[in-house]
Amino acid sequence: MLKSLFTRAALLLPFMTASVAAEPLVWQAQDANRxxxxxxxxxxxxxNFYPLPAAFTTHWDSADALVVEANILKPxxxxxxxxxxxxxxMLSDAEKQSLAATAKQADLSSSSLLSSPPWLAAISLQMKMxxxxxxxxxxxxxxxxxxxxxxxxxxxxxxxxxEQQLRLMEQLDDxxxxxxxxxxxEWGEMTEQLTCLINAxxxxxxxxxxxLFDNSQYNDQTDAALIIERNHDWAAQLSHDPTxxxxxxxxxxxxxxxxxxxxxxxxxxxxxxxxNQLSQSRQVSCD
Length: 287
What we know:
Blueprint: H1 2-7, E1 26-30, E2 34-41, H2 54-57, E3 65-68, H3 87-90, H4 93-106, H5 110-114, H6 118-132, H7 141-151, E4 156-158, H8 162-170, H9 177-185, H10 190-203, H11 206-214, H12 220-240, E5 247-254, H13 264-270, E6 274-277
Parallel strand pairs: 2-5, 3-4, 3-5
Antiparallel strand pairs: 1-2, 1-6
Helix pairs in contact: 6-9, 10-11, 12-13
């Protein structure tokens, strides 16, 4: 579940203890003709998530465009595929009982979750958890920056469309059952995990973030679909698409997309870019 917190719903508790000497991850990738300033984002938040790191915001006025995973301000005609199996069709009786218990804690209708595809039921639970924690998508980093870009007439580019993201979720192994059951099985432990997660994100602690990432219950197929394959696609776009061959671009993607040898900075380095971390980081303890 922890991986989806940064990639799909980003359900993080408003618990901020990092010092001013540490901040969320910001990377710079550049070559002779272009510069990418990359911020690891959270998709739901509150006022305590701001201000954003100066290592990112100081480049705003000189940027040629804001690049996001998907431009959620843009109207979309994307619709669910009615042929995709529902949660009720995918779960065993025991799994349905576990889901019903979690739905009760989340104050959601279990029948509504059962009639949804498993991936959507997972996101519904996660968004409800965000709401109960006092977080809102309206204060998420992506949406906040999208609104700022629109207000300042900064061009907005997207790495994926809403339609592509929808099809991605529908094509997950067992239609996202793995995502749903990880959410259900870890529900009772989330307060402690999220406290650790938010401290690691705010401090830019890559080691702790990677540990949390590796300890989640997702299978390899879900990992590949949600993180690794998308990272490779984005790195290829940024490196080779004509749109990105000249200029300065501010890039905002989920923070888990920035980690390790399969992370976006490392993949851009393989493409020949010079890579530097612009933000200040520190280690945090979750003991």
